[in-house]
Each structure stands twice: as C-alpha cells, then as structure tokens.
Design brief:
By secondary structure, the protein is an alpha+beta fold. The chain has 8 helices and 10 strands. The chain has one domain. Strands 1, 2, 3, 4, 5, 6, 7, 8, 9 and 10 form a 10-stranded antiparallel beta sheet that branches.
C-alpha cells in the first residue's frame, strides 16, 4: 500500500512539474517590467493639449503597500479652457499587490466619503487602442473649509494578456493565475472636479489616454508582444 501511495505521489509531482515548468516566473517577467518602467518614464509633460503642472506623489504608506514598479502621477491643465485634471497610472510587478487597492477602498481610508450613487460601468473608444476601454465612475467628497472638496474618478484596470477591466474580482482572479501573476497589473485613473458634466468628463478621459495609448496596449496585451517593440542591443 505504501509503495502505491508513493508511486501516486511521484506521479502527481511529475505531472505538476511538467504542467508548470513553462509558466513565467518573476525573473522571466523582469524584462517586461523594465520595458513598462522605461515607457512610463518617457511619457512627455505635454499630453496633447494638456500641460503637466505638477507630479504629486501618493503617501509613502500607500506606495509601501502597492510596491509599484512604475508610477505616473500628473496634474494637468488645458490652457485654452482653464480645465484641470489628474492622471494616475500605477503598475505593480505582482498582481496580488493590487488586489485590495482601488477607489472604493483607498479613498475612504484616506478621509474621503462616497458621494452619491455610482453608475454602471461604461466604455469608450480611445484612438490608438484596438478595443473599447471600459471605465467606472466614482464620486467622493471630503470635508474642508469653507466648502467640501468633491471629485469624480474615471477608473479601470489593465491586466496583461487579459485586457481592460473595471472590477476588482478580475484583478484577484489574475492574482490566482500563475501564468499572469508575475506580469502584475495596472490601475488607471483620470480625476476631475465632481461638477464636471459626464460627457465632458469622458472627453477629458479620452484626451488624456490617447497620448499614452501604446503604454495602455502594453499593459493589457501579451507581454511578449510588448517586448517585441523594444529595440535590441547590438551584439558586441
């Protein structure tokens, strides 16, 4: 009986090895993360008609929890309209680090209160991206003097080889998949004043995403395809 159990155990271990030996590892995913970091760092200050005026950083505690590989935070203005907005792109090396970090959790923990009822997710076509981009609108308010601060967030996730998603369940599912987990996950937010009409807010959302369409494609597509666009060093 023991010999049969031992044989079964060996067979199961062998099956597990041959099934998972080609799965990506953190080490194998490193060139992809280096590519994403380089792409984020090369995003220009001018995004279409929007000019960067500040690069506010998240609180150190939030960065320690997220452990971002790459982080893009911009406060921008559109000079001919006096409109302003914020753009945030945060990408982690391990999708598990994103599993609890999205607006319904992060903003209330930072002193913001839910403001109103959130609509169902929507989607919009962004030039340069070959699939519709879904987004969820979140609204929050924060007590302040002489009046409360109110913001509207257009947010979504980009999961390698899985596309764009608005729900945290998809992120957690990716975290359970050994084939996806090492390539991490990204969260994208466009933040405007809560009084911004939704059609205008969507237009701002599209205008800010259009210049970074190649980055969003790399964050949501096949990691190997993303690396094919990286210039190769000449052999010595």
């Amino acid at each position: 009986m023991r010999s049969i159990s031992f044989t079964i155990s060996i067979a199961l271990l062998a099956a597990f090895y041959f099934t998972t030996r080609d799965y990506p590892t953190a080490e194998k995913a490193e060139p992809y993360h280096a590519h994403i970091l380089s792409t984020v760092e090369s995003v220009p200050d001018l995004l279409g008609d929007w000019r960067t005026v500040d690069r506010p950083q998240p609180p150190p505690a939030a960065q320690q929890l997220l452990r971002p590989n790459s982080l893009l935070t911009r406060r921008l203005v559109k000079d001919d309209t006096a409109m302003n907005a914020r753009l945030i792109v945060v990408q982690t090396k391990d999708s598990r680090d994103m599993g609890g970090h999205y607006p319904p959790v992060c903003y209330p923990s930072s002193g913001w209160q839910v403001d109103g009822t959130w609509p169902a997710p929507r989607e919009v076509q962004v030039p340069g991206i070959n699939r519709p981009v879904p987004y969820q609108i979140y609204t929050f308010k924060q007590r302040a003097f002489p009046r409360d601060r109110r913001i509207k967030i257009y947010g979504f996730f980009a999961i390698p080889d899985s596309g764009f998603r608005t729900d945290i369940k998809s992120v957690r599912k990716a975290a359970e998949d050994y084939r996806v987990r090492p390539f991490g996950c990204a969260q994208i937010q466009v933040i405007v004043d809560a009084d911004t009409p939704e059609d205008l807010g969507e237009r701002i959302f599209v205008e800010l995403l259009t210049p970074i369409a190649p980055l969003l494609t790399d964050l949501s597509g096949n990691p190997e395809s993303a690396l094919q666009t990286v210039p190769q060093k000449a052999a010595p």
